[in-house]
Amino acid sequence: MSAPQLKTDSKYDDYDYPTTSPIVQSGHPGHTTPEQDAQVHQLRMQLEQAGCSERLDTLSMLRFLRARKFNVDLAKQMFVDCEKWRKEFGVDKLVRNFDYKEKPQVFEYYPQYYHKTDKDGRPVYIEQLGGIDLTALYKITTGERMLQNLVIEYEKLADPRLPACSRKSGQLLETCCTIFDLKGVGLSKVSSVYGYVKQASVISQNYYPERLGKMYLINAPWGFSGVFGVIKGFLDPVTAQKIHVLGSGYQTELLGQVPKENLPKIFGGSCDCDGSCALSDAGPWQDPQWTKTPKWAEPKPEASTTIENEPSSTISTHDPQKAPPPSAAPQGIAAAKQAPLGTGQ
Fold it and tell me: What is the distance between the alpha carbons of residues 167 and 164, in angstroms, rounded to a whole number?
């Protein structure tokens, strides 16, 4: 029996990394049915008729289809809305030119970073919410710039981080492992954190579907597990099983997923990067053996102009249902809020 392979189309697909998912589940790359392959073709043709010409590759089509349970009409609307938002937000220019020069100062209050890989080879994404001080943060940066950085990190997750991890592991990796540290987040901060999460969810659930692999909520405060247990009942079962709520005794379970040498010392690992793990961006995407120039950084026929890295009142972040525009928020939990809409990874 031949090994499973992704059914590609040379007109749209140009992958230089593995394209078969290790998840042997219907709808995942390399494990699609003839009907699902036909739905990929149908979605792509409808999008072209609607005027879309970019990001029509097979892996992207499958992610949007999985996010909408392979309902072609819903997947099409989701994709069209996403492309509209990308143009309004200026994503393609931001990813090339955005300079988050205040990052070290922001991280003193709100560290959020990618750091090496888990035992499945996926990027590990870490957020620490205990020190969030919005008053102090807004003296350093703006909510808009924090949101712009959030978007840039999503773009860099897609390329170069995930392709580099896929090359190293020898199999397609489309998701990340998130560690969400709640240490210091008492009841007094819950409402502030919840508002933050609600804002970021518009970006993650509508425009970056199917990126959640596993999530660990560590140092969860007393009573959090009970509250989350209720929330979990409303989540898609496949997604719900990926989320693990742990108290202060999280290390054994976390080290079962993340190698000790890849986990920062602050969480019980042995990694102590020069300068700090939070600012190192260490991972296969920094290794010339595995990484390649991201497609968004390749030369374009037309010259790109440098954008102004200051807040602008013209940038729209409204979702298709006209939710209030978000300012900035935790990426990890926002990814979990995709749950009811997708089948997950």
Answer: 5
Q: Tell me how far apart the alpha carbons of residues 124 and 322 are, in angstroms, rounded to a whole number.
A: 32
More confident residue, 207 or 307: 207
**Which amino acid appears at position 16 of this protein?**
D
Element (H, E) at 235: none
27, 343 in Cβ contact below 8 A?
A: yes
- pLDDT band of 322, cuts 50, 70, 90: very low
- Per residue in 149-190, pLDDT (tens digit) is 999 999 999 999 999 999 999 999 999 999 999 898 766 666
236: which residues sit within 8 A by CB, 6+ positions away? Answer: 339, 340, 341, 342, 343, 344
Residue for token pair 């970006």 = 203
The tokens of 13 are what? 């697909």
Number of Cβ atoms within 10 Å of the Cβ of 322:
7
Any alpha helices (H) in 20-89, and if so which ranges? 34-49, 58-67, 72-89
Model confidence, pTM: 0.85
Tell me the C-alpha distance between 196 and 137, whole Å. 13
Q: pLDDT tens digits for 106-147? A: 999 999 999 999 999 999 999 998 888 878 898 999 888 988
Burial 59-98 (b: 16+ CB within 10 A, else e): bbbbbbbbbbebebeebbebbbebbebbeebbbeebbbeb
β-bridge mates for residue 243, sequence order: 215
